[in-house]
Design goal:
The chain has 13 helices and 10 strands. The protein is an alpha/beta fold. Strands 1-2-10-7-8-9 form a 6-stranded mixed sheet, with helices on both faces. A 4-stranded parallel sheet has the order 5-4-3-6, sandwiched between helices. The structure holds 4'-deoxy-4'-aminopyridoxal-5'-phosphate. 4'-deoxy-4'-aminopyridoxal-5'-phosphate (PMP) binds next to helix 8.
């Protein structure tokens, strides 16, 4: 039977490419979004979660009734919890309290042990990633079933998962007719893995980072300096440091995208194309439009539609919040 899976994990990946009509006609290019919001956990991070857990199982780090611990903006936690539930692992998820209530509620309803911590910079020992590492190491002293600290930022199983799946899928879905790939970076897993897969097939494919304000990666690509300016309401993307996954990325160029631009694109995609996308997708599509303009008409560009708007309704459909931040509001709100 076609498209019949023996368990939910087999439904991770193999997502469709969807042509973005407005961005394509505006630039006379073919701009496609890879519909990662269709993964069972609702985001691209199901792929990284699966790759990390599979590797740990192969190494024997974790066995049934073991525990997966992770620091996450939410989506990786959701992916790990869904896989954990399917395989018999408990999950402890450490999240900065600044992330949307929607993601926190989703994790709690899935049965994860969610620990909310104040948002602190990476260099601070109270940073959520550092706390998750400490919880994992303390727990591992008191359990026999194994504890996996997923460590998505510096565990390169993450980018290898995208190299083996997302990147290969994009190459075959475009029949190798692709001029550019654009996406934002949180851990760097997507851009490093997809970029490596595409460059291996054709080194001329442009790999471009689309970076939110407040992230230091754009300046790093432009001038090798980790400097950031401004801020963003987007979640799960941007970085103040070069993670082990991002270190693997071959990046040709970068754009810095502000929230105004990203949100306007999100609202138009909702209103005109029926695509209900999360904040990082706005940054990604904005970057794809910029690359299309730079490369010129007739080119094919792929970006990532990471998750859906419903993870962010309390922000991107909250008129008071948007007006306070001087951001655009959807005209039907
Ligand atoms: N978009 C969303 C919504 C995410 O949750 C993440 C991961 N934190 C990303 C984009 C970035 O993906 P990556 O970690 O592979 O760089």
């Amino acid at each position: 039977m076609k498209n019949t899976y023996s368990n939910v994990l087999e439904s991770i990946g193999n997502t469709p490419l969807i042509k973005l009509q407005g961005p394509s006609s505006q630039t006379n290019c073919n701009i496609y979004g890879k519909a990662e919001f269709l993964n069972p956990g609702g985001s691209i991070k199901d792929r990284a979660a699966l790759a990390i857990i599979k590797e740990a199982e192969e190494k024997g780090t974790i066995k049934k009734n073991g525990t997966v611990v992770e620091g996450t903006a939410g989506n990786t936690g959701i992916g790990l919890t869904l896989i954990g539930n399917a395989k018999g692992y408990k999950t402890i998820i450490v999240m900065p309290e600044t992330q949307t209530q929607e993601k926190i509620d989703t994790l709690k309803t899935m049965g994860a042990d969610v620990k909310l911590v104040p948002a602190k910079p990476y260099k601070d020992p109270g940073n959520y990633v550092k706390i998750s590492a400490r919880i994992a190491s303390e727990l591992s002293m008191n359990t026999n079933e194994g504890v996996l600290w997923a460590n998505q930022f510096d565990n390169t199983a993450n980018y290898l998962g995208h190299y083996n799946t997302t990147g290969q899928e994009i190459w075959s879905q475009t029949n190798g007719n692709i001029d550019g790939f654009v996406c934002s970076s949180g851990t760097g897993g997507t851009i490093a893995g997809v970029g490596k897969a595409l460059k291996e097939k054709n080194e001329k494919v442009q790999i471009v980072l689309s970076d939110p304000k407040g992230s230091a990666l754009h300046n790093y690509i432009q001038s090798k300096e980790l400097i950031s300016e401004g801020g963003s309401i987007t979640e799960g993307i941007g970085s103040s440091r070069i993670t082990s996954n991002f270190a693997e990325a071959i990046v040709d160029n970068s754009y810095s995208v502000n929230d105004n631009e990203a949100l306007s694109i999100l609202y138009t995609l909702m209103e005109k194309e029926g695509l209900f996308l999360g904040t990082s997708s706005g940054i990604n599509v904005a970057g794809a439009i910029k690359l299309a303009k730079d490369l010129g008409p007739g080119k094919t560009i792929v970006t990532i539609l990471c998750d859906k708007s419903d993870r962010y309704h309390s922000k991107i459909f909250n008129k008071k919040f948007l007006l306070e931040k001087k951001l655009p509001t959807p005209n039907w709100l």
